[in-house]
Amino acid sequence: MNVKDLLSLKGKVVLVTGGSGKYGQCIVEGLAEADATVITTSRVLERAEETAEQFRSQGLDVHAMAVDQAVVESVAPLTEQIRSRFGRLDGFVNNAVSRPMKGYYGALEQFAESMHDNATGMFHLLREMTDLIVESGGGSVINIASMMGMKGPDLSNYEGVTGMGDLPADYFFHNAGLINLTRYMAKMRAGKNIRFNCISPGGLFNHQPEQFLKNYCKKVPLGRMANRDDIKGLVVLLMSKAGEYINGENILLDGGLNA
What we know:
By secondary structure, this protein is an alpha/beta fold. The protein has helices spanning 3-7, 22-33, 45-56, 75-86, 108-135, 169-188, 210-217, 232-239, and strands at 13-16, 37-42, 62-66, 91-94, 139-144, 194-201, 250-253.
């Protein structure tokens, strides 16, 4: 098969949670550019609609739905809406995240809220979307974690930077768990024609303070933070036929920072 056909997502229906966020928008755009029908979600439908309309104005096939992974009851309506509107689901990018914990000394209630949203709620949504993909004949799931799930914080990045560096523990905890949950799902759903992979990005450029950028980028062999395009090709690869023998992997996307 021609490599362009291997990478095409034409005819595929793919769900992206948190599609209005910084990485979420890049992911939605990349999948839609590869000719997938993309469903972008947010807790607030109006925000998802704004994102979808932005891409529809570019001729991309993007639709909006609402789901809040912290609210178990919101998942079943999402599932039924996908079934009724599209009749199937071929892929899921598990990207939504909540960040309620404020620093190392954040209240335990903040840590508990994060675990409810990013562990319990996320797993419920992941399991339901996995079942829908299996019901549809199989496909691909991509979990979006972070390089911070693989290593401890590098506090030298924040030297000379005001207002940054008090990093919350929950972020490191749940991203590490998500990486191994990917391996668990690959084994538990073996034989169901569904693949599970994880992407662990490094930092995405978002107009951070100049001193932070200097501290961070001097450690990266490529000399920069990630840009909006860097994750798109990898997501398309893992979602497409070109990546159909990649399963149970965590791929570090950090420009060589942790090489």
